[in-house]
Amino acid sequence: MKLLIMGRPGAGKGTQAENIVNYYHIPHISTGDMFRAAIKNKTKLGLEASSYMEKGELVPDSLTTNIVCERLQEPDCKDGFLLDGFPRNISQAEALDKFLSDKGICLDAVLDINVPASILIDRMVGRRVCKNCGATYHVEFNKPQVEGVCDKCGSPLVQRADDTYDTAKNRLDVYDQNTAPLLAYYEAKNLLKTVDGNQDFAKVFADIKNVLSK
Ligand code: AP5
Ligand code: MG
């Protein structure tokens, strides 16, 4: 299965990506996670990306497209992959199309997790992530068993640097200006499958499996 997962910031891409990759046995390629790992490891890429991410702006295409194309050439992507957070604008989508067509690869579907913008600030500001394994929680909608501690590995939970109110709001604006036009782009290619992401976690995943089975 060769998939893209799209949706506004906080729509549940990362949350559902975990279910999808376990179910289809494919790697999860999240550009946001790759940039956060680069920042943690203090690499050159991390230093360059952090100034954009802190403000909720897009990291330049020249940095982003390369890391995705390199990752897609690794052996574990041969039989499928789930791209999360890429492409994020028309120019990235065109670069991805070119890369895939040069390799003779076709996408199976583009999933759009649709959630109204009005509820997403609360989802982002209340999100907590494990410092060690990256597992995602929410202070209200998806609480860990012990407050502030990861259920999976026992490490502390922290807030993402871009999950402040102002940055979350800017990320939603950046999505409207840059990323929303991709929905029509993939609809025109007959790849777009939309799922209502404003439902219980399990129901969202059930709907994803249902649309992907068609
Ligand atoms: P990225 O990491 O991709 O962030 P994003 O698109 O803003 O999306 P999020 O990760 O915030 O949300 P999500 O949809 O994964 O939601 P989640 O599952 O965590 O990008 C970050 C930054 O990196 C960008 O701003 C940019 O600077 C840079 N970047 C990345 N890719 C780039 C690219 N291609 N080009 C340029 N720059 C790029 O869920 C959110 C919360 O809601 C959680 O707390 C969760 O528990 C909760 N939740 C999930 N589902 C539900 C539900 N059904 N009901 C209730 N709560 C729920
Ligand atoms: Mg995410």
Distance between the termini: 13 Å
- Helices, by number, come to 9
* Largest sheet, spatial ordering of strands: 2-3-1-4-8
Shape: globular
User: How many beta-strand elements?
Assistant: 8
Any ligands, ions or cofactors bound here, and which?
A: BIS(adenosine)-5'-pentaphosphate, magnesium ion
Strand content: 15-25%
Order of helices and strands: EHEHHHEHEHEEEHHEH
Low-pLDDT stretches are: none
Q: What average pLDDT do the residues reach?
A: 97
Gyration radius, rounded: 17 Å
* Fraction in helix: 40-55%
Largest sheet: 5 strands, parallel
Query: From the helix content, strand content and strand pairing, which structural class follows?
Result: alpha/beta
What this model shows, in words?
With 214 residues, this protein is α/β, with parallel strands linked by helices. It is 48% helix and 15% strand. The chain has 9 helices and 8 strands. The strands form 2 sheets. The chain has a 5-stranded parallel beta sheet, with helices on both faces. Strand 5 and strand 6 form a beta hairpin. The chain is globular. The mean pLDDT is 97. Bound molecules: BIS(adenosine)-5'-pentaphosphate and magnesium ion. BIS(adenosine)-5'-pentaphosphate (AP5) binds next to helix 1, helix 2, helix 3, helix 6 and strand 6.
List keywords for this structure.
214 residues; alpha/beta; five-stranded parallel beta sheet; three-stranded antiparallel beta sheet; 9 helices; binds BIS(adenosine)-5'-pentaphosphate; binds magnesium ion
Write the topology of this structure:
Elements: E1 2-7, H1 13-24, E2 28-30, H2 31-40, H3 44-55, H4 61-72, E3 81-84, H5 90-103, E4 109-114, H6 120-125, E5 127-130, E6 136-138, E7 157-158, H7 165-179, H8 181-188, E8 192-196, H9 201-213
Parallel strand pairs: 1-3, 1-4, 2-3, 4-8
Antiparallel strand pairs: 5-6, 5-7
Bound molecules: BIS(adenosine)-5'-pentaphosphate and magnesium ion.
Magnesium ion binds next to helix 1.
